[in-house]
C-alpha cells in the first residue's frame, strides 16, 4: 500500500466523516477508498459485508448511479445505454469468472473511428464538387459491446462487486481489474465501533476532532502547493536569469497560530 498511497493530507481528508459518504472510518477502508477512486483499471470489490457497495451507492447517488446484476438478461442493453451517456454503473454479484462479452468494456478497449472529411456533392449542384471539413470533428470514440460498436463517453465509470468471502479468481481476471478487499477485519471493526461510540456519546469532541483534521489537511495541501510553486519560481530564475522580487501571499490557519508564507 505504501507505493499507491496519496499524500498524507489526502488521507486526512478521506478520514473526515463529511467526506466519507458512507465509507467506514477505519484505516483499511480509507485505503480501499483511495484505491477504488485512483486506480487505472475498473475496481472489483470483494465485499461480503456490503460496506463498499453502500459507499459506492452513497458516493455516486447524485451522479445517477445505475445498479445492475451480472445475471440479468438485459445486462448488455443497460451497459450500452450507460456507456453512451457517460453514467456510472455498479455491477453486482460478480462470480469467479467474467462474461466474455464484457471483456472489451473491462479492459477499456476504446478505439477511434475517423469519418471521411470529404462529402461528395451532387454533380448537378453549383459550386465545388467536394467540401473539406475538419477531420478532428468527425472522430468517434467507440467500444465493442456484444455485436455492436457503441459510442463511448469518457465520463463512463464501472465498479464491480462480489459477495463471495473467499473468491478464487483466475489470473486472467486479476490482470484485467483492480481487486480491492473490503472484508471487515477485527481491527477495522474495533476502529469503526470506537468511532461510532465517541460520535454517539461525545459528539462535541468528535466534531472538534473532525474540524482539526480538516484544518490540518487543508494546511498540508497548501504547504505542498507552495513548495511546488517556489521550486517552479527558482527554476524560472535559473533558466531566464530574472530575479523574482515578490509573489502571492497565503495565510494558512493552524491550530496554534496563523502562518504567513510568502513565495519569493
Provide an overview of this structure.
It is a single chain. By secondary structure, the chain is of the alpha/beta class. The chain folds into 2 domains: 8-108 and 153-201, Rossmann fold (3-Layer(aba) Sandwich), CATH 3.40.50; 203-262. Helix content is 40%, strand content 20%. Helix 8 crosses helix 9 (203-240). The longest helix is centred in the last third of the chain and has 38 residues, at 203-240. The radius of gyration is 25 Å and the shape is flat. The protein starts with 7 loop residues before the first helix and ends with a strand.
What brief labels describe this structure?
Rossmann fold, disordered C terminus, 264 residues, alpha/beta, five-stranded parallel β-sheet
Helix content: 25-40%
Number of helices: 9
Name the CATH homologous superfamily of the largest domain: P-loop containing nucleotide triphosphate hydrolases
Principal-axes shape call: flat
Question: What separation lies between the terminal Cα atoms?
Answer: 36 Å
Largest sheet features: 5 strands, parallel
Radius of gyration: 25 Å
- How much strand content do the residues show? 15-25%
Low-confidence stretches: 1-12, 117-137, 249-264
Placed side by side, the strands forming the largest sheet appear as 2-3-9-1-10
- Helix-strand makeup class: alpha/beta
Please state the second-level CATH architecture of the largest domain: 3-Layer(aba) Sandwich
Overall number of structural domains: 2
CATH topology of the largest domain: Rossmann fold
Q: Whole-number average pLDDT?
A: 77
H/E element sequence:
HHHEHEHEHEEEEEEHEHHEE
What is the CATH level 1 assignment of the largest domain?
A: Alpha Beta
Amino acid at each position: 500500500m505504501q507505493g499507491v498511497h496519496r499524500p498524507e493530507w489526502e488521507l486526512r481528508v478521506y478520514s473526515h466523516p463529511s467526506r466519507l459518504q458512507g465509507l467506514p472510518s477505519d484505516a483499511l477502508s480509507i485505503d480501499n477508498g483511495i484505491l477504488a477512486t485512483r486506480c487505472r483499471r475498473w475496481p472489483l470489490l470483494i465485499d461480503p459485508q456490503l460496506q463498499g457497495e453502500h459507499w459506492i451507492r452513497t458516493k455516486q447517488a447524485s451522479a445517477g448511479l445505475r445498479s445492475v446484476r451480472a445475471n440479468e438478461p438485459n445486462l448488455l442493453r443497460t451497459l450500452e445505454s450507460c456507456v453512451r451517456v457517460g453514467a456510472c454503473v455498479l455491477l453486482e454479484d460478480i462470480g469467479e469468472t467474467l462474461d466474455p462479452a464484457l471483456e472489451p468494456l473491462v479492459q477499456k478497449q476504446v478505439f477511434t473511428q475517423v469519418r471521411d472529411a470529404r462529402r461528395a456533392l451532387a454533380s448537378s449542384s453549383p459550386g465545388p464538387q467536394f467540401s473539406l471539413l475538419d477531420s478532428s470533428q468527425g472522430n468517434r470514440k467507440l467500444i465493442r459491446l456484444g455485436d455492436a460498436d457503441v459510442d463511448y463517453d469518457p465520463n463512463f465509470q464501472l465498479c464491480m462487486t462480489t459477495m463471495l468471502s473467499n473468491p478464487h479468481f483466475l489470473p486472467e481476471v486479476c490482470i484485467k481489474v483492480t481487486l480491492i478487499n473490503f472484508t471487515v477485519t477485527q481491527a477495522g471493526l474495533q476502529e469503526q465501533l470506537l468511532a461510532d461510540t465517541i460520535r454517539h456519546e461525545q459528539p462535541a469532541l468528535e466534531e472538534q476532532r473532525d474540524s482539526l483534521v480538516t484544518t490540518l489537511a487543508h494546511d498540508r495541501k497548501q504547504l505542498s502547493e507552495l513548495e511546488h510553486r517556489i521550486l517552479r519560481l527558482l527554476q524560472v530564475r535559473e533558466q531566464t536569469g530574472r530575479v523574482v522580487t515578490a509573489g502571492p501571499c497565503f495565510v494558512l490557519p493552524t491550530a496554534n497560530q496563523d502562518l504567513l508564507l510568502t513565495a519569493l
